[in-house]
Design brief:
There is one protein chain. It contains 6 helices and 12 strands. By secondary structure, it is an alpha/beta fold. Helix 5 packs parallel to helix 6.
């Protein structure tokens, strides 16, 4: 073997590579286990409206064990995302001793099911996701109420936005939108008026029926001193109106 330079060079390269790998492993083990380099500061990158500093501190309690390299970022993220008003969190290290948190809060745009099914204060955020959080009664009263079968919050929210846009020319805005288990739609307004839209019909889509109603509303109903109690838009070529009394 000693008379084979190529074999000796290959063996030397292998030994050097093994030694370098051992040094890298030793450095990683040292960095993870060394008691120095603790996390000394946690920085939140933006101003928060609903999440309080005390909630963040409680969520991080016991989560900063170890040092800059060994702290568990995934566990920290999961703990913060368990807070009621937190939708999403990004956690990153910043040398030499910081954790930087980017926290996205839920933005409530509606109440969901009014808590009647679960007994909880359920809200819908701008992504159509349901979350549970406490909202002051005065603020909650300004939000529309959406009802629907489990898992339909995003669809109901989108429909609500569509209906609001269609009704805007006549100054009507529903306070409540319901999707029944049979997939029939109904709107309620603050003055008590109800609009029954029924189910989607291939030959007479809900959007078309509502647009037709908006088109004749100023002449047919807009000048009345009182709004009707019920407007039934389930007919393909017209609608029915029931007045008070």
């Amino acid at each position: 073997m000693w008379h084979k330079p190529q074999l000796l060079n290959a063996l030397a390269d292998l030994l050097f590579a093994a030694a370098a790998a051992a040094l890298v492993v030793a450095a990683v083990v040292w960095a993870v286990r060394v008691p120095s380099l603790p996390i000394r500061q946690v920085v939140v990158t933006q101003e928060l409206r609903e999440v309080r500093r005390g909630e963040i501190e409680l969520a991080l309690a016991g989560m900063l064990r170890g040092n800059f390299f060994s702290v568990n970022l995934e566990a920290i993220r999961a703990s913060l995302e368990s807070l009621p008003w937190v939708r999403k969190v990004e956690v990153r290290r910043q040398w030499p001793a910081q954790l930087v948190l980017t926290i996205e809060e839920h933005r409530p745009v509606a109440r969901w099911d009014d808590g009647r099914a679960t007994g909880r204060n359920e809200l819908v955020n701008s992504y159509g996701e349901v979350f549970v959080a406490w909202l002051p009664e005065k603020a909650a009263a300004t939000l529309p109420v959406l009802y629907g079968p489990h898992g339909t919050a995003a669809e109901v929210l989108q429909r609500y936005a569509d209906f609001v846009g269609t009704l805007q020319p006549v100054g009507l805005k529903p306070q409540q939108l319901t999707l029944s288990p049979r997939l029939a739609w109904q709107m309620k307004f603050t003055d008590g008026m109800v609009i029954n839209l029924g189910r989607e019909q291939p030959k007479s889509p809900i959007g078309d029926r509502l647009s037709r109603f908006v088109g004749v509303y100023p002449a047919a109903l807009g000048g009345r001193p009182e709004q009707p109690v019920v407007v039934d838009l389930r007919y393909p070529n017209g609608f029915a109106v029931r007045n008070r009394g």
